[in-house]
Amino acid sequence: MTTMSNEEIIIERLRLKIPNAHIFKLPPKPSAGGWRGAEWHDKLWQGTLKVVERNDQTAVLLVDAHNESSIFAVCPITHQLDEGHSTNGGNGVDRCIDSSRYFVLRIQNAQNGRRMYIGLAFNERNDAFDFNTALEDSRREKMAEKKAAALGRNNNYTPFGSSSVDYKMKEGEKIKVSIGNNNTTTIGSGNSGGGGAAARRRSGKTRSSNTGSGGFLKPSSKDTPSRLA
Q1: The pTM of the whole model exceeds 0.90
Q2: What CA–CA distance (Å, rounded) separates 45 from 58?
């Protein structure tokens, strides 16, 4: 999705979309150890989770399942792009120590900048895996972009996209790509979609977007705890 306002161009990329996300009010954090999903009992909300990128910003959006313009909360992601960081720890998302399906999000009020923490849980471990993968893909791509920009400054290289040539697709313009056996994919200028390993993995799955069906799974011994390094 591309939004234009005067000379400003905002490119929005949907990296991941998960239809069933559960949000909890957090109890006081334990003095020792980390967050435990088994201790969460006060459920606040259920809806769709999206990982989106707008230019150089990444965020986790919690939106209504039937009206995605209705946003419940926003968790800005602060990627660790220094060479010394090999993980995304401290980016605004923490993991629970008793279940791989439970996370803690640091959400932020856009008007006053006030921050608070909420609990996030998924029904399936595959959803949690895709969520982790989407955030890590985003971090790695932004780190690569940072390295490329630094290399360009050192070598007086002109980055792609800084040319005066207009490569944007015109309204209604389409590209046809043939891939073997005369299978043709049409890419239109109005299309928008996700990207990255998580989105590709989910593209072959058929998932229900009905948030009212299915029971919620509490942490169990079958879960694989994930701890931050």
Answers
A1: no
A2: 22
